[in-house]
Specification:
Elements (H helix, E strand, L loop, with lengths): L1 E5 L3 H13 L3 E5 L2 H8 L6 E5 L7 H10 L6 E5 L4 H10 L3 E4 L4 H14 L8 E4 L2 E4 L4 E3 L4 E3 L2 H12 L4 E2 L1 H9 L7 H14 L2 H4 L1 E6 L3 E6 L5
Parallel strand pairs: 1-2, 1-3, 3-4, 4-5
Antiparallel strand pairs: 6-7, 7-8, 8-9, 10-12, 11-12
Length: about 230
Amino acid sequence: MRFLLIEDDQRLSDALQMLLQDYKYSVDTAFDGNSGQDMAESGIYDIIILDRMLPGKEGVQVLRDLRKKGINTPVLLLTARDSIEDRVEGLDAGADDYLVKPFATKELLARIRALLRRQPDQVQTEKLSIGSLELDTLRCEATNGKEIIKLTLKESQLLEFFIKRKGQVVTKDQILDKVWGLNSAVEMNNIEIYIHYLRKKLDPINYGIQIETIRGMGYCLGEVPDVS
């Protein structure tokens, strides 16, 4: 899962980023409304955590503009303003939830889980499956019921990306944006390296899946038939 955190308080942003990364979420950050909106418009994020009081462009206006442009990514609005009128304004602008500062980290994580459960295309568990494989995204482990393979965080995120798009051809650009993020300096050949690692660890015969290279287009994860 990739989150966008738009928060101008550097210390709070750093603390939230570390917290979310501890829970295996990938987090990109922006520190003003304009750059945050530009990043949000990419459409690669699963959740946007948006501060209300931002330099450059106020958070509610960023939210209104995103909704006008058809960006339907769930938005959790953060604010120190807790009047009923402020909450109504934020929700009417398109926020999916509203959290008043200061807040407990447990409540933030609970709100995030609730937002993810509301999304029809999001898996509501930490475990994903395809073929004979089951991926535990929190433990970064893959199993076929007989053996457990430990994955690195990036390997787990890459496999999660493929599983959620099984049978679809995905480009290197899509993988780079979703798994590494828009701000990443990672080169394209790193994607090939990580796919090589996954292929070595997850034998098609034992796990019933195959990452196929589609020349000139990208990659496609599919099930291997009759692997018993």
